[in-house]
Amino acid sequence: MTHDIVESPARRRVLTTARALFYAEGVRRVGIDRIIAEAGVAKATFYHHFPTKDDLVCAYLREQSRSERSLVERLESGDAEPTTKILALFDVIGEVGCGPGFNGCPFINAAAEYPDPRHPVQRAIAEHRRWFRGLLYDLLTAAGHADAARTAAMLSVLRDGLVVGSDLDDPAEIRDLTRAAVERILAPAAAPAT
Amino acid sequence: MTHDIVESPARRRVLTTARALFYAEGVRRVGIDRIIAEAGVAKATFYHHFPTKDDLVCAYLREQSRSERSLVERLESGDAEPTTKILALFDVIGEVGCGPGFNGCPFINAAAEYPDPRHPVQRAIAEHRRWFRGLLYDLLTAAGHADAARTAAMLSVLRDGLVVGSDLDDPAEIRDLTRAAVERILAPAAAPAT
DNA sequence: CCCACGGTAGACAGACCTGTCTGGTAACGT
DNA sequence: ACGTTACCAGACAGGTCTGTCTACCGTGGG
Q1: Which of A123, A84, A109, A87 is nearest to A160 (CA)?
Q2: Nearest CA in chain A to B126
Q3: For B111-151, how does the pLDDT look when each residue is reduced to its tens digit (9 = 90+)?
Q4: pTM for the full model?
Q5: Which of A153, A193, B30, B46 to pair with A125, CA 20 to 30 A apart?
Q6: Does any strand D atom come closer than 7 Å to the Cβ of A48?
């Protein structure tokens, strides 16, 4: 009854390798054989932990989601104004897009490879997206923003556009216009209290 | 010396079939065998017109680009104000996202499957994106917008976010907030000439 | 002691993929 | 009449994919 309080090292290695390869080259492009070779894991072990490739893909996306959540938690932990936190959050998004290995949003990319909305992969994507939008909504509500729901949706749209643009266009340019774009979206509720 | 003034019917059939399948299911997922079967074309004929699958993918994207350009030309042909044209353009984007077969942006989707920026497919994508951004820039310039380049980039970002959101979230909601989002992006240059 | 467990190594099946090749038909311009 | 061109039908090669299976090893708890 050794519960997996500590995750199996082999499983960990597989997940780390899969994450790097899936993100860099696309999910369908990377085969199981390559993952187990680079992770140094036997095939039987792999299929013991992940009965199906789809299971691995879902685990990859959940892992990615965990990463982003904990990153945001660190950002959000301060006692700054909620609006400041939103700006900081988007600053990070613009900055990450300029990083060397940046390749767009793992969730948007995976969605392109799994178009069926009822597929488990799409469900994992949807859950992550719900979280992110909820985060924006909470921050806007805490800021006392009028029409927080609608503005959260707009910021979510903006975020998607930023990561796509950082991937396919000039990331530095995107980074430099991010703050202004967020401010424009937030503007209508900015009371003219000068 | 029969120039292809008229496109070969077999080639046309292949392109039409490929377009539907690639868009609906993803590029890597759809094999040549299936395309030629559904198009009713012999394999040799296919490889005569498209020496490589990549060639077909590029042709698919160019075709898609032509479609969008001609759609926009129709929209743009009127003698309305440039700003009105921009709003009309985004209205169409929001509306198309609610259509039954909508599956996101073919270019963004293809980019996820071909991450290498030097790949011909990525070049075709980049060209299409340059066109679209140029279109926005021209409209903003015609509207006498201050800082047209920057605002064009923001609208391009917004557009990407809208199509991604229409695909992965609630398209009707996206459609309903599109106009307001565009107006917020355009706002700072709206001279307070009331 | 022993045996369950997590692991390694790798063969194998069966499907699917791209791309080549052979062979035959029909239209068309010269 | 002839050659070119476009087309269809389908076999084939060589590779890759997912997933299964056998066989073996080391360690630690009962």
Answers
A1: A109
A2: A168
A3: 999 999 999 999 999 999 999 999 999 999 999 999 999 99
A4: 0.93
A5: B30
A6: no
